[in-house]
Amino acid sequence: MAKSRVVFSASLVAALALVAAVIGVVAGRATGSSGGSGGGGGSGGAAAGKKVDVVIKASDSSFWQVMLAGSKQAGGDFGISVSTFGPTSETNIDEQVQLVENSISRGANAIVIAPNSSSALNSAIDRARSAGLKVITVDTAVTTTSDGFIGTDNVKAGQQAGRRMCDLLKALNKSTGKVMIESSVAGIQSLVDRDAGFRQGLAAGCPNADASLQRFNNNDIGTAAAQVNDAVTANSGLLGVFADNNTSGVGAARAIKDNNAAGRLPVVAFDSDPQENAALADGSIKALVVQNPYVFGYQGVVEAGMATVGRLPPRVLDPGAVVADKDNMARPEIKQLLEPPTQKAGA
């Protein structure tokens, strides 16, 4: 077995330090709201009462519901009025565009958005900023101007996944052959970077492992399971599977279970949700690269509040990523990332 490692990014420490540092800037003498209602529970400070709309990528994903929980808590802590929205699926780009337009119409002061495209929302974001709204982007950077970006350095996080896959393959004494990349949606920059980083990390220690086999499941668990099942059937020498988001991870784990292949085909996946966590516990996923979407939401609202009162949030902030496995998943610092609070859009 590969040795259990917990890898923290130094930028996570910077993120937490920044949260503490901006309390005086954003909220003044704000008092925390234990309910995290986002309805202006804090008091004092120039940003109190500002309206911030938070738009996630998909309301059907617990990953993004964690981001909403963080944003609602920040609203309650700093007296900022937070409203939450999201399309049902990460493929609904047009619905995200409409949600941005709605924020302009309803007089929001700022938007925190996890874009479903690096470019398709550019015009809507430009219109929002022209109308005076501040825009903080999360997870996926856009190719137009925003007022700040919060997201994992996906190349580095992907490299963590690739190195862990290599360790797992070496533990099985087989590192020559194909490794499948099961991906969600083609062309999403965060996933492109994640996959590129995975290939780099894998190649560094396992140069004979070929990660050119890749499929896209359109963010559908059933499709992901079918694609991994087909790859297992068609490639007798398949070494393992890298799943680059939680949907892909759940589908890959399902296929591995169906083929009774957990002992010979390691799966390394991204993110966490109850199904991925269960797969990590039963061994059908060997490792999860876990981000911190709670900080995405919390820090997004903090930075939006800063921007609305003329302060300058950081241009880029990376909360970092952690590698979780069966050996370390019960540790408090890992468990809180695997089992964070969630909140549904509009709640």
Explain the overall architecture.
- It is a single chain.
- Helix content is 44%, strand content 16%.
- The relative contact order is 0.17.
- The chain has two domains: 10-152 and 293-319, Rossmann fold (3-Layer(aba) Sandwich); 154-290, Response regulator (Rossmann fold, 3-Layer(aba) Sandwich).
- Residues 1-42 have low confidence and may be disordered.
- The chain has eleven helices and twelve strands.
- The longest helix has 18 residues, at 10-27.
- By secondary structure, it is an alpha/beta fold.
- Strands 2-1-3-4-5-11 form a six-stranded parallel sheet, with helices on both faces. It has a six-stranded mixed sheet with strand order 7-6-8-9-10-12, sandwiched between helices.
Please specify the SSE layout and strand pairing.
Elements: H1 10-27, E1 51-55, H2 62-78, E2 81-85, H3 93-105, E3 110-113, H4 122-130, E4 134-138, E5 148-150, H5 154-171, E6 177-183, H6 189-205, E7 209-216, H7 221-234, E8 240-243, H8 246-258, E9 267-270, H9 274-282, E10 287-290, H10 293-308, E11 316-317, E12 322-325, H11 332-338
Parallel strand pairs: 1-2, 1-3, 3-4, 4-5, 5-11, 6-7, 6-8, 8-9, 9-10
Antiparallel strand pairs: 10-12
Outline:
By secondary structure, this protein is α/β, with parallel strands linked by helices.
**What's the structural domain tally?**
2
Rg over C-alpha atoms, rounded to the nearest angstrom: 20 Å
CATH topology of the largest domain: Rossmann fold
Task: Please give the oligomerization state of what you see.
Answer: single chain
Strand order of the largest sheet: 2-1-3-4-5-11
| CATH C-level name of the largest domain | Alpha Beta
Average pLDDT, rounded to a whole number, is: 89
Broad shape: elongated
Number of helices: 11
- Largest pleated sheet: 6 strands, parallel
- By secondary-structure content and strand pairing, the structural class works out as alpha/beta
